[in-house]
């Protein structure tokens, strides 16, 4: 897991209070968007539970004793959803998937890897894709299976892959 590089705003107490002025708030949310995506990429995480988020180092800077309120976390997640970088997993918007690449970007990354590594017309297990030695240097190595499946479904919709179930394994055939 890579170290998280905190931006200067992370040590600035007002960053943890949603700003009332529209222009300032827009800049604040953009900074949060970048921070959340960088954090999730560095930590290889994909799921966020809003109730637990305030206890994470991402939204709680203990060194300045500040944490972002839940309303702020939800505001940022909704902004990420508008850019294709997050998706609510329930109607109450309590659990989210966070994508440091959009699903379309993940689909393109996976397909490029399959083409470049000669894996078209071959079946790969999900384990091989996210845990295999041949993908150790790839951005999708360690990717959450739920995100992987959603990206592969995008490829399926384009006719570039087929998700396959066999025994207790899941795999994909790239075309």
Automatic annotation (TrEMBL):
Keyword Ligase: no
Family to which this protein belongs: Belongs to the VPS25 family.
GO terms under cellular component: ESCRT II complex
MF GO annotations: protein homodimerization activity; structural molecule activity
Superkingdom of the organism of origin: Eukaryota
Biological process terms in GO annotation: macroautophagy; protein transport to vacuole involved in ubiquitin-dependent protein catabolic process via the multivesicular body sorting pathway
Protein name: Vacuolar protein-sorting-associated protein 25
Xref: PANTHER family: VACUOLAR PROTEIN SORTING-ASSOCIATED PROTEIN VPS25 (PTHR13149), VACUOLAR PROTEIN-SORTING-ASSOCIATED PROTEIN 25 (PTHR13149:SF0)
Subcellular location: Cytoplasm
Primary location group: cytoplasm
Source organism: Orthoderella ornata
Protein keywords: Cytoplasm, Protein transport, Transport
Classification via InterPro entries: ESCRT-II_cplx_Vps25-sub (IPR008570), ESCRT-II_cplx_Vps25-sub_N (IPR014041), WH-like_DNA-bd_sf (IPR036388), WH_DNA-bd_sf (IPR036390)
